[in-house]
Amino acid sequence: MAPKTFAVACKELFDGMRPMLNKSSGPGLLKEYSPWLHNFHASSSDLYTDTIEVPGQYTGHSEPLPEHHVKIAGFDEKVLVMSSMRKPKRLTIRGGDERDYMFLVKAGEDLRLDQRIEELFGVMNGILMEDPACSQRGLHLTTYKVIPMTSRVGMIEWVQNTKPLKDFVQSALSDEERKNYGRPAAMQVEWLQKKYSNNYKVMYKKAPRSEVEKKYREKVQALPWDMLRQGFFKLSSSPEAFLILRSHFVLTYATLSICHYVLGIGDRHLSNFMVDLESGAAVGIDFGHAFGTATQLLPYPELMPFRLTPQMTSLIRPHSEKGQLRSCMTHVLRALRNNPELLLATMDIFVKEPLLDWRANAKKQCRALKMDVPKEESWYPKEKLKQAEKKLLGYNPAYVMREDLRSGHRNTPEYSSLEQILMGDPKSHVRASVGERCSSVEEQVACLICHATDPNILGRTWAGWEPWA
């Protein structure tokens, strides 16, 4: 095909797709996307009647019994189109057991990594259940089913009665406060433009710690200090209910933070958490950046181990993060450190079956560092497995993260400044004074909290992460 003919054909294709791409989020009709699914009914004489199962019923924990699996009776005629970039659709399946099963259908992403992260969460839940301190406190992760169908299409179980943390926080704001919600981001842009040519990398090198921390505090103070707290007040029917919901959120969020840290899960902006509106539990979603890739591969590397911003710490007032939050983190990390073999053996699947995205990331890293790509495909996931092992052996989180930073950014002009920001100041930061390996679980958790709440790191973080909220 001649280049000109190809260009014309592509234009016709894109012109035909444009109405669907420009369609706003909200309810849509299933028949617009799949007439076959729309017309599928178990009562028909279709070849597939009574043979298509509701996805997600093969757990791998026991021998499957397909005769007892729920079959698909049909589909709801409406789908919910989400507002995110690829516009995933929420599909409702009518089960033969007269129940509805909701799934989010996503295209353009490899969901195998998310599926394996959920499998690792299941292993972690087993460890927490066997640990007396964690079991007594009911510490566990909320998990959901992920069904990859191809390397670029898959389905995710819809977690019922939840709301994205960002929406949950904003729901408690007045109209005036909601209008001002974007003010800190505007302040960040104005500061970068005025002093650092709107360039984060220049800011990493030139902005002094005192200035960064001062500007960060100004952005934090531009928002109500109790947005998250008010969200739980609004959800509660009484003061007692507020205390119960808040406590459950703190326990689940602390558990989630430690488990995410061990697996190196990043990109924890407000839309990548959900809040259960019945129990107050925190649920993590979207694990596209795991095993340190948010530090290693993003152009503006993440330098915090998990999200612990002022809104999170303000929720537990009058207590400090040294109370229930730290205690819970300590119990969870101790349980995982006491059972490293099981967790690492499960993670070994990443070595045996490197994902396509991992191969792409490995090549990207080698290009950035001007290295030849090793012939052994497993070198990259092995590197990630070693990092997870260090966390379970009690290494200082700043030292562990420095390895990820070094492997992705050591040839950049700003690397030495980033390293200094990451490692902290021995006079002010506990993580900078304890050495490469922590003496106890308690000390490791103290380093993690110091690391996650450092205003010199949060004040330099990409604005889309909203570190002030």
Automatic annotation (TrEMBL):
Intracellular or extracellular location(s): Nucleus, Nucleolus
Protein name per UniProt: DNA-dependent protein kinase catalytic subunit
Enzyme Commission designation: 2.7.11.1
Segments forming domain FATC: 437-469
Stored PANTHER family: ATAXIA TELANGIECTASIA MUTATED ATM -RELATED (PTHR11139), DNA-DEPENDENT PROTEIN KINASE CATALYTIC SUBUNIT (PTHR11139:SF68)
GO cellular component: nucleolus
Organism name: Geodia barretti (Barrett's horny sponge)
Enzyme class: transferase
SUPFAM superfamilies, alphabetized: Protein kinase-like (PK-like) (SSF56112)
PROSITE patterns hit by this protein: FATC, PI3_4_KINASE_2, PI3_4_KINASE_3
Positions of the PI3K/PI4K catalytic domain: 75-401
Transmembrane region(s): none
